[in-house]
Amino acid sequence: MSAPSLTPSKAANHRRNPPRAAGPAPSGGRFAKSLKRNLTAHGFLIGAVLCFAVFSWYPMVREFFLAFQKTDGGTTTWVGLDNLTTVVNDPAFWQAWRNTALFTVLALVLGFAVPFAAAVVINEFHHGQGYLRLLVYLPVMLPPVAAVLLFKYLYDPGYGLLNELFGVFGLPEQQWLQDPDISMFAVVVASTWMNMGGATLIYLAALQGIPGELYEAAELDGAGILRKIWHVTIPQTRLILSLMLLMQVIATMQVFVEPFLLTGGAGPEGSTTTVVYLIYQYAFNFNNYGAAAALGLLLLVLLAGFSAAYVKLSRAEDE
Amino acid sequence: MRSARFRRVRRAGVMTLVSALSLSALAACGTSSSSDDDTGTKSSGSSDPAAPLDPKTKVTITIDCMPPTAKQAELKQWKEDVAEFNKTYPNVTIEGRSTPGQCLEPPRFTAMLKAKSQPDVFYTYFTDLPQVLDNAGAEDITAYVTDKSVPLLKDIDPNVMASLKQDGKLYGLPTSNYTMGLLVNRKLFKDAGLDPDAPPRTWEEVRTAAKKIAGLGKGVAGFGEYSAGNTGGWHFTAQMYSVGGEVVDASGKKAAFNGTLGKQVAENLHAMRWEDDSMGKTQLLKWGDLQKQIATDKLGMFLAAPDDIAYMVQQLGAKYENFGMGPIPGERNTLAGGNAYMIKKGISPDKVKAAIAWLNFKNLSVGKGQFAWARTKADGLPVGVPQPNFWLNASKTADDEARIEHATMPVENFRSFMDNPVAGKAEPPKAQEVYKVLDNVMSGILTNKDADIDKLLATAEQQVNQVLANQ
Questions:
Q1: What would the mean pLDDT of B109-134 be, rounded to a whole number?
Q2: Of B27, B283, B433, the CB nearest to A286
Q3: Taking CB atoms and an 8 Å cutoff, what residues of chain A touch B16?
Q4: DSSP B412
Q5: A31, A287, A288: which to substitute to probe chain B, counting the most B Cβ within 10 Å?
Q6: Whose C-alpha in A195, B141, B171, B401 is 20 to 30 A from the C-alpha of A51?
Q7: How many other CB atoms sit within 10 Å of the CB of residue B9?
Q8: Which H helix or E strand runs over A297?
């Protein structure tokens, strides 16, 4: 009963950072003891660390060096910034970045709002919510290639379902994926349909974590559905929304599969060439691994910025 | 506090670097770059290239592209050929290396070259020569290849041999070659009232025939073209060659398609797509798409190589009888390519001689090896596809006769192509990068009714010049 009383926040800190012993830490001895005590755990860890080291970390380190090397000619030579110069001087370079940015913006407008709206709607249903969740998640279970083929048939200007429907309503036929002005938009719609299931479930979980009393209080104050969303739902899910936004930026900037399969990669007049497709071309069409690595490095630097923000937000959520 | 953190960071940095270096060292250990392959002279036999292979010397050579188990008939023939070869050369042991799928997949091939892990005798495309030489991968076999070691050498098309030479030195022996022509669907030709035995010979005739075929309706296209995955640029190049144009000039440093001929090719395609509506609505097609369309009687014509027919029959279930082939319209030049075997740089002169003896027996002897048409027919494999077609003079006559005698398909359907050979022209330098840029021209023409052709060509010219300047 004489235990010191700590405030909750101090208790949390106490759990996180155990006080160090006074004086210099006998690190060698403690490490050995800890190693001995958790031998099995370390055994398991070694396997995982080795796998990460060989298949994840080493390729990253190698890619970093490769960005400044030329591997043609059997031997590897250092070329400084030559690969970066090659990449930046590529006629497709700026177009790829513009297209990637356009995809990201469109994917955020659609791919962010649609799953959130779907989650809000599903959350309103008290009966049959399980079926709705399943329905929304089904496209995620479809292999991407099958989903893309489905959209290729929908979008086909000759015999596609969309143009058939347009015909029924007397609207002019569209070229969808083949029109440089709307091809990226068509890719984003397909991509959103294919990927929205996962995001919807995350939003739904966040929504279901909101205490019911808040909505009851809002209803007592006379709030309608829109005001409840604005004043309760959005503030309560703000953090998860921010995290999802960042994750989506990181994911959409690496888009490759959808444009590659839907439009053959480049698209009409290069309108769906993305940065990752360009990396693919350097590596596997032109065998210029140095240039591929250099462009990969540029993308990495940009995404690292977003990742840093993501980590910072994750910490904010923890606290 | 700050210095402690700095120490930790520094320690972590050093650990990372040490780990990375250790892993690099381990990875380096894994590559198989055998030093004795590079030294060149470790022969026990005669190093005089003109001298015949010493029958007392035991030689083992590894050969690329032995048919895999899944290709039973081809594998049976390979084994028969090895046994037959060993009757003359009992001292030579042939070790076949089998690859599933295609013999040469570019990324794997490049990796193999860089690791110097290619077999003693390795399979290449004609267009691989610069890459192979950059990687010091192939032996100069000029002195070894004579009319004694390859008796029919004088009857091989010099254009084909030129594809395997650089600076006057020979680096490979051909196994097959192709030139592009106009592939036609005979059923659709007949349905549209056209003569399938006389495919169009000019681009104007192609346009007229395409309109008639598209007039059949039911989603049938008269003429098809690629515009994605670099294949659009590849076919734009073929069309440029067909009208006597160039894509890159003789210096290899400047684009050469933004002129009268380039505009003519682009305008013709644009008119067929948008004025005549004879090219179908679905565009952004790439390799494989047009083959599927013509195999299912949805397409009348497209530019193709003869091996497309074998692909459509063997993979897509089409029938040989339904196809025919004419020369490329325009007939000024056509895009040419092919496959060859090269010999790994640094192996002993005896091995080089044994390799050439094998290649001569397997690939360059009329009536034997790949040209044993009676056996090919007996084994249920196709005979009559107009490829390979690199023979001249008496060898050509003998091979053509044997091919016709044992044909498993109506070879007269390909007569127009065979009787009107068009001079082949190799792909331009930096071919794939150039094709990537030209894909935009093709997709622009075929997907945009209001395409500004002058602007498309000017932009592509500027971009190709940039690509060529970066060599």
A1: 89
A2: B433
A3: 61
A4: G
A5: A287
A6: A195
A7: 10
A8: helix A289-318
